[in-house]
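Why show two proteins at once? Because comparison is the fastest way to build intuition. When a single record is shown, students tend to memorize it. When two are placed side by side, the eye starts asking what differs. So, the first record is below.
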Amino acid sequence: MTTPVTGVRAALIGAGGMARHHIPRMLALGTQIVAVCEPSDAQYQLTCDKLKSLDAPIPPNEPVLETLLTKYAGQLDAVFIITPHAFHHDQTKLCLEAGLDVLLEKPMVINQEEALSLIEVRDRTKKLLVIAFQGGLSPQIRYLSEQLRAGSLGQLLNVSGTVWQDWKTAQIGQWRTNPVISGGGFLFDTGAHMLNSVCDIVGEDFAQVAAWFDMRGQPVDILSAVMGRTRSGVLVTINACGDTIPSCASIIKVVTTEAIIDTGQWGERLLIQHRGEKEPTEVDLPAMRGAWEQFLDVRAGKIANPCPPDVGLRMAQLWDAVRLSASRGGEMVNV
């Protein structure tokens, strides 16, 4: 069992519901939450309430990130950025340039230009940047990608993914339906896990993409259909439905010359039916460990970065092509 790294001094950039989801595990791993950067007094208070319930110290709130980085210079090792999508690039750049390692919530950025920029900053500062995609962090997607790259499952032929959720009902009037802040709708929010996991699975850039959106009366995509072809000829389809009965689930089917694989966008399972077998068998792999725990292990040099910004670049390129094609009524776009 991995021994957790303790004593890392961290700041939470964003203290909403997702931050409160991560806080118990961060504290259990010995992390010191030194400060919070949260512009909403209401969200900060809810986070304070959460910390009080865990008998944890209450960190001060500095709502302006530049001020926080100056005020706490030398007192921080890392940050966990959990903010609306459009803020990710600038906040990550500031933190990396301040000499801090960064765990960044998904999606990494909202376009290819921002992805290339963060890779340049990461390379220039030599600091760590890990993207908190559950699929990319899961042993299931990691194992599948490694087996595909090694050729042990034969030639990759088709990848088909579907994700669904009653997302529209929950998000009407919230920031996720504001395209300026969110960068997209259901496919770029819950479905961002699908985009990233598919990019991880195919392991190469897309060559052509066609896509269609149905906004269902909202300013962002609610229903999406995507078709694509990678540079080596792998055919990919992605369907996303954010207007369902109460639910949230996904399925990814991968077909190769030697196997049929069943997994999900979060790496929630991995079943493989090899040539000559009548039924698929679940691969015996450990459950995914938390994003912060894996981030600490990457910092300590115990594991390689399972979800680097380089995969985030491939996803950003795909998303740019999806948006462009959808804006043109499904016209095929060369990536």
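Second record. Ask yourself what differs from the first in the token line.
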Amino acid sequence: MMIPLPLFVAIPLTTSFIVPFFGQKTKGIATLLANIATTCLLVLSIYVLITGQTGIYQLGKWSIPIGINLVLDGLSALLLLTISIVSFAAMLFSIQYMEQYTAKPKYLCLFLLMVSGMNGVVLSGDIFNMFVFLEIASIASYALVGFGCEHEELEASFKYMVLGSVASMFILFGIGLVYGITGTLNFAYISKIIQSAGLNNGLYFALGMFIVGFGLKAALVPFHAWLPDAHPSAPAPISAMLSGVLIKALGVYALVRIIFNIFGVSIPIGWILVTLGVLSMVIGVFLAVGQWDFKRLLAYHSISQMGYVVLGVGIGAVVLAQGKDPAWASLAILGGLFHLINHSVFKSLLFLTSGSIELSTGSRQLKQLGGLAEKMPMTRTMCTIASAAIAGIPPFNGFWSKLLIVLAAVKAGFYGLAAVTVLVSLVTLISFLKVQRYVFLGDLPEKLSHVKESKGSMAWSMGILACLCIVMGLFLLWGPLRDQILTPAVQVLVQNLYSSDIISMQ
């Protein structure tokens, strides 16, 4: 049975309008409703992937390309699952963690609005409604970054809002150019027109604005200035959402969809992606090494790890444009997409562990911590698993996706890119050895003698993500699961199935 695609937007959106009406005394009911909503989304996304559903949902029965439509294919199904897993874990973590704030129902409202917007971006079949959903998610995230209302948080939120608005301006101008030239907003029909008439200067300019706009949303170097301030300032569950899925859904996914399924790949565009990926990997990881604020260190690693994703996709684009063996392109894109979902899991786990540490100790400065392995053994175990995953240590999930990217670079003859990938992984390992040394090892400061381990829903959410870090690398590369979850997403990009499938359904 085909699941109505609007449910992925309607469930969190409807719940977000309900929960603000609950007050301080009834916030437990609001929390329960929010967790039910994220659980339903997780179940629906798993069902969609297991059954291999694809299709189009036309809103209001208006036919394409005039009407609004939602499209489900292999790539959007993969992103829906990623968003659902992280939002489920973050919402579960929020049950206890957000008790320190006085306006929890408002937090739940903004959280669900952000989830609704991200799901809408992933499912949108036309470029303008993608922008509308992108703005819903962005505006909610601006408020969530400044949710604590301290000076640092408000400053970071304002900076994030200004640069996010600049990114939206670039994207909206690009949409206007595309509509003026092609006369349509539908992804498939824009692609069909471009394939028949080719790209002109106006479309190239629009593509450039999309790269800048979505590059800002994804915090790729040199568009990354907002992220190191926004992520540390937000509450830990929101940091997990921002790093785990928001920069992917609003940035990387949208950019990849537009390049591969609308404009088409070319050698120059492929090398632009590769360049952005390498710059983000290298600059992000070296900036992270020098950080002593735990969450700021994790924020810079988000920039670096997004570089892996864009590098893998960029290598695939170059290989396709050069007319080389498509299997090499598939391998590179498989590595990039696999690392995207891997990063969602281990980086979300790292931000949740940082929140657990900050809640217990009152600090996230590495030099003020130490000796927490004895007081917080469960958090230490979860953080160690996530650190090993992000550093690419086998058998954790991060190792396998990085290995695929390295193998694809070698097979395509890009030996320098393979070497850079390995080097960045080694520097990442050094960075997280520093975290282990200063947070969990050494002597416990006297002022931290009262520290207690996080329990309940916070422990469960971290445990779920830690288990995924262990099993994802082992099972998702296994034939049947890979063909069910990852391969359809790769085929959408490599074979450009998106446009041809939609038009053939009309």
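One difference worth noting in the second protein: The chain has a mean pLDDT of 87.
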